[in-house]
Amino acid sequence: MNYFTRVLKYGLDYSYFAVLNIIFNILYAIFSALAFVSFIPMLDVLFKQTKKVYIEPEYSGISDIREYAENYFNYYISKQLETDISSTLITVVSIVIFFFLMKNIFNYLALYNITFVKNGLLKKLRENLYSKVLLMPISYFLNKKKGDLMSRITADILEIQTSYLSILELMVREPLTILFTLIVMFTISPSLTFFVILFIPISGFVISIIGKKLRKDSKEVQLQQSNFLSIIDETISGQKVIKSFISESFFLKKFDKINNLLFRYSNKVVNRKNLAGPFSEFMGILVIGVLLWFGGKMVLINASISGTTFIVFMGLAYNILTPAKNLSKSFYSIKKGNAAAERVFEIIEYSKEINDQGRSINMNEFKDKISFNDLEFSYGESKIIDKLSFTINKGESIALVGSSGSGKTTIANLLNGFFNANSGNIIIDGINITDIKRESLYKNISIVTQESILFNDTIFNNIKIGNLESEKEDIINAAKEANAHDFIKDQLNGYDTVIGDYGNKLSGGQKQRLTIARAMLKSPSILILDEATSSLDSESEKKIQDAIDKLMYGKTSLIIAHKFSTIKKCDKIILIDKGRIVAQGTHDELINSNSLYKNMNELQI
Question: What is the CATH number of the domain that holds 440?
Fold first, then answer.
């Protein structure tokens, strides 16, 4: 129940509706019990069992109010029966209709108010989950499958909705219905009511035994659903590779394996849940059977209860069966929902403070230099950066070159604050980067990568991400500086053109110019260029390089490049191999002094 109560806390803002729901459920439960009791006078009239009372009873106090009400009603009916049987029937039938009408009105009002609680709770839960996803460090996403995260945000939230929120309307209504019905039944026959009460804990005990494995199997279903989403995402994203390498059969086998596991565990979970209804109904009929035997003796042998009252008592007993069955089903729902809630709360309970622990200094602007001191970093057991040290002075452009996997991009990620070094440090203006608040660090740094990361939105909004406070004129100026304004004007809706997922409606060069415009709008003091022109054709590269030159003007730049033609003007070039600095200097100095750099340069000529 722990996760269930934690989910319910998200509905505290809607407690007003919850209170109304409780009030209307109380009234529903009262009228639900009284609705069956209202059959007694009607049945008494039909079977001529009405107790004849010809003297109007006197009210003697609250302690005898039930007896007074019963005698007064019998007095009223007795008088009517002697004058007009038809109007008497209309009266008793009207009483039944009234109680059932009130029961259903209060049921609707209870459901009406719980709807605001359920949907409001779900809204708050989604908001909290999404906000935490935005706060997660980059390292978290590297260790998680995209499909798994998507499953937690979609399928697991849906499971919470169906398993948890669907029983919110039962939490108050069903127990109250059982309670008030039992109270009425006690007033009719305490001994008969004893058998009904005995049924409830026995049923609950057996159901708890059956449901022990439900949470474990449900958790496995959630895992397989995340794997299912992952392979779907991979299949859609990698269509070109799958088709060009004729690897459909490989992916089909992989999919079938996951699909079969999902099929197996889903069957286990659903079948366990399906057991709740039939078992509860059988237990209920068993109790009804015992009541018929025991109550039949009271009517026919002992004559301690009238036949019409016993019929109504049986109706009341049956009135307990439905809420009892619903409660047993809700037990299974909670067990099933716990598995989904556990996965969702793993994200929600992520603490930004823990991730930012020790980061207390705001870096308003970059003033002096960046120092990399004996930096070491590993991915698992694999060392990527090994005792690396160098300095970038304000206004300098430093290029990192080397073969793939030498650690160039990792250095950029460490400077971005995406990862923390295993040992050594990065010092910016005398402050350790691990002491600088991430937000202030990100405000001073901008990155343009080889992969143009754009969003399924308008061109205008994609550029505006660079500075959300910028005006339209600033965005247009940034686009002009990035050599993007001309092609934007030619789009169907200009700056209001939606560019599709990942900007797939644009060419590679167009996408890259938008990312440069975004960086220009931000106007950072530190700029990271991670192979920003490596995948472009010659014409696009020239336009991009011109835009990059404008972007770099007056800024401190760290450039990662494979194409040496783009870095010849850099103040310093650092050659890296296996995470270590092999050589450093200007382009001309390295050509004359380092054979490895010279050979790499000649391969590109």
Answer: 3.40.50.300
Indicate if 317 and 430 belong to the same structural domain. no
Does the residue 424 lie in any domain? yes
Q: What is the pTM of this model?
A: 0.69
Q: How far is CA 595 from CA 206, 233, 280, 503, 563, in A?
A: 79, 45, 82, 41, 17
Say yes or no: 339 and 375 in one domain: no
Q: What angle do CA 585, 590, 593 make, to 5 degrees?
A: 115
The two structure tokens encoding residue 306: 């009238």
Those residues of the chain that have pLDDT short of 50 are none
What are the tokens at 413? Answer: 């990620």
pLDDT of residue 62: 61
Residues belonging to the chain: 605
Which of 349, 381, 405 terminates a domain? The answer is 349
HSE of 305, CA atoms in CB hemisphere, 13 A: 25
179 CB-near residues (< 8 Å, 6+ apart): 29
Q: Which stretches within 245-306 are classed as H helix?
A: 248-297
Say if 36 falls within a structural domain. no
Do the strands 556-560 and 397-401 form a parallel or antiparallel pair, or are they unpaired? parallel
Q: Which amino acid is at 197?
A: I
pLDDT 10s digits, 405-439: 888 888 888 888 888 888 888 999 988 988 888 88
> How deeply is 23 buried, as exposed, middle or buried, from its count of CB atoms within 10 A (0-12, 13-18, 19+)?
middle
In whole angstroms, give the CA distance from residue 181 to residue 564.
85
Residues 411 and 313 in one domain: no
State how far the alpha carbon of 97 is from the alpha carbons of 93, 284, 315, 570, in Å: 6, 27, 16, 90
CB 337 within 8 A of CB 2: no
> Is residue 262 domain-shared with residue 395, that is, in the same domain?
no
Backbone angles phi, psi at 373, to 5 degrees: -120, 110
Dihedral (Cα; 29, 35, 37, 42), 10-degree rounding: 180
